[in-house]
Amino acid sequence: MSIRTDSPHPGQAPRLRLTPTERKTSIALALLFASRMLGLFLLTPVFAVVAQTIPGGSDAARVGLALGAYGLTQAVMQIPLGMASDRYGRRPVIVAGLVLFIVGGVICALAPNIDWIIVGRVIQGVGAVSAAITAWIADATRPEVRTRAMALVGGSIGISFAASLVLSPVIVGTFGLSGLFWAISLLGFACLLIATFVVPVVPRIETAMVTARARDVLGHVDLLRLNFGVFCLHFVLMAMFMVAPGLLEQQGGLDSSSLWKVYLPVILLSFVLMVPAVFYTETRRAHKWALDASVAGLVVVLLLMPLASRQFYPFAAALVGFFIAFNILEALQPSLVSRVAPPHFKGLALGFYNTAQSLGVFAGGVAGGIVSARHGPSNVFLVCAALAFLWFLTARGFKEER
To answer: What is the mean pLDDT of residues 131-142?
Structure first.
C-alpha cells in the first residue's frame, strides 16, 4: 500500500495523506454518521412546538423527556455495543442498532400520544452505534491520519444539525409530526444500506476495548475534561431548543413550517464566520486556544440570550453566535479525543465520549423542559450559561498536544 506525502520544503517532515481506501472508508462512515445524526436532529428544531398538537404535548416536562429519552438509552448501551462490536464485528452490531432505530421511528410515527413517542424514542436509543462507528474509523485509518478522519466525522455532525434546522420545519409544514418521524425512519433505512453495502471491509486489530479497562479512561484527566465538555455542549443544545422555536414564533410572528426562514440564514452565516477560526486552528495548531475561546464565546452568548430573546433580530443574531461556537466545538472535540487518548484504549475512550454526549442530550432535554415549564425560557438560558461557565473552568486545565 503506497503512502502519499507532501514535502513542500526540503528537510521538512512529510505530511501523510489518506490512502484511497482510508479516504473511501472515512467518507462512507462520515456519511453514515451524518445520516443517522440527521435522523435524530430532525426532531430538535420544531418538536417543542408541534408536540402541542398531540395528546399530552402541552406538558413541557413530558415533551422534554420525549426529546431527550433516546439519549438515556444511548448512554446505557453505547459502551456495551462498542465492546460487542470488538467481539462480533463492527458491521453486524451497527446493522442491528440501525434496525432498532428504524423500529423506534415507526412507533413514533404511529404514536397516538406523547407517551408512545417516549417509548419509540427509548427504543431508538437502544440502537447506540456511535462508538462502533468511531471504532470502525479507527480500524480503517493509520494513527498518523486518524485525527483528520475523526474530524471529518465531527464536522459531519455539525452539518447534519445545520441541515436539520432547515429541513425539519419544511417536513413538518408539509407532512406533519407523523411525517417527520417517517422521514427519520427513512433516513435510518438509508443508513442501513450504507452500513451493509457501501462501507468497505476493513481488517480489525484485536486490541483497544478488549485489553483496556474503564479506569484507564476514568483516570485520564484530559479525557474527563473532553467528556464533560461534550456533555455540556449537547445539554445546552437540547435545553435551548426546548424554548428557542417558541420564542422565534412569538417574536417573529412565524409558525413551525416557516422557522427554516430563520434557521437557514443563521446557519449559513455561522458557517461562513467559523471558517477563519477553523483555518487558524489547523494552520497554527492552536487547538487549546480554539477550545478556550469557543467555550468562552458560548458562555457570553448564553448570558446575552435572555435579553436578546425579547426581540426577533437580536435573538437571531445571538443564534448565529451560538452556532459559530457549537460548530467549532462539535468538530474540535472528537479530534482532541483521538489526539490525547493513548492507542491501547482509544476505542474505549471514544465509547465514554459518546456516552457523555448521549447523557447530555437526555439531561438537556429533560432539564430544559422542566425549567421552562416552572421558571420560563430566560432561566433555561441562564442554567445553560452556568453549566458552560463550569465547562470553561475545567477546560482551562486541558493540556495542548505536544
So the answer is: 80
**DSSP structure class, residue 16:** E
CA distance 127 to 123: 7
Is the pLDDT score of 357 beyond 60? yes
- Mind listing the pLDDT tens digit for each residue in 305-331? 999 999 999 999 999 999 889 888 887
Residue pLDDT, tens place only, 56-78: 988 888 998 998 888 888 888 88
Q: Give the contacts of 188 (CB within 8 A, at least 6 positions apart).
A: 36, 39, 98, 101, 102, 105
Instruction: Give the sign of the dihedral formed by CA 326, CA 82, CA 215, CA 336.
Output: negative
Question: For cell 446493522, what's the residue?
Answer: 95
Let me know if residue 16 belongs to a domain.
no
235 part of a folded domain = yes
Asked if residue 281 lies in contact with residue 289, where contact means CB atoms within 8 angstroms, the answer is: yes
Q: Please count the residues of the chain.
A: 402
Domains held by the chain: number: 1
User: What is the CATH number for 114?
Assistant: 1.20.1250.20
Count other C-beta atoms under 10 Å from residue 373's C-beta.
Answer: 16
This prediction has a pTM of 0.79
Beta bridge partners of 5: 16
Cα separation, 51 vs 198, in Å, equals 36
Residue 126 has pLDDT above 60, yes or no: yes
Give per-residue pLDDT as tens, 83-120: 788 788 889 999 999 999 999 999 999 999 999 999 99
Residue 6 lies in a domain: no
Range of the domain at 115: 21-201+209-395
Tell me which of 272 and 391 has the higher pLDDT: 391
Q: Is the four-CA dihedral 47, 48, 50, 52 of positive or negative sign?
A: positive
Q: Which residue has 493513548 as its cell numbers?
A: 342
**Per-residue b or e along 227-245, where b marks 16 or more CB atoms closer than 10 Å to that residue's CB:** bbbbbbbbbbbbbbbbbbb
DSSP 401: P
**CB neighbours (10 Å) of residue 322?**
23
Would 157 be classed as within a structural domain? yes
pLDDT class of 343 with cuts at 50, 70, 90: low
Three-class SS of residue 309? coil
Rg, C-alpha atoms of the chain: 20
Instruction: Please state the three-class secondary structure of 246-271 as a single string.
Output: HHHHHHHCCCHHHCHHHHHHHHHHHH
DSSP conformational letter for 44: T
Short-list 326, 314, 235, CA closest to 277 = 326
